[in-house]
Design brief:
With 101 residues, the protein is α+β, with helices and mostly antiparallel strands. It has one domain: Alpha-Beta Plaits (2-Layer Sandwich), CATH 3.30.70. The chain contains 3 helices and 4 strands. It has a 4-stranded antiparallel beta sheet with strand order 1-2-4-3. A hairpin with a 4-residue loop joins strand 3 and strand 4. The chain is globular. The termini are close together.
């Protein structure tokens, strides 16, 4: 089984406001996008389990023309709070790199 890091040319995460994180999976070609963007390993339940959030709060936005799957989920604590460990959410993508598709 390939991993996310093997089928995406770029994976990034970023802050999407003080209460949300967005992860962009930029697939390496149309074939990989078509084959893996709808994978069960990337559905709302799987993302919720990885990030420890409620599955009903996870949003998936497929963008076929760009070969991108955008994933948004709520931050565990508001941006800038005392418990915050990744102020800009720039490291959150790493949890997805080794996910088997």
């Amino acid at each position: 089984m390939p991993k996310v890091s093997e089928v995406c040319r770029h994976v990034r995460s970023k802050v999407a406001g003080p209460f949300w994180v967005t992860v962009d999976l930029m697939f390496d070609g149309q074939e990989n996008y078509d084959r893996y963007s709808g994978s069960a390993a990337l559905n709302g339940d799987a993302i919720a389990a990885i990030y420890g959030v409620d599955a009903t709060t996870v949003s998936l936005y497929p963008i076929p023309s760009l070969k991108v799957l955008k994933i948004s989920y709520p931050r565990p604590v508001p941006q800038g709070s005392v418990e915050e460990r990744d102020l800009h959410s720039g490291q959150q993508y790493a949890y997805l790199l080794d996910v088997d598709l």
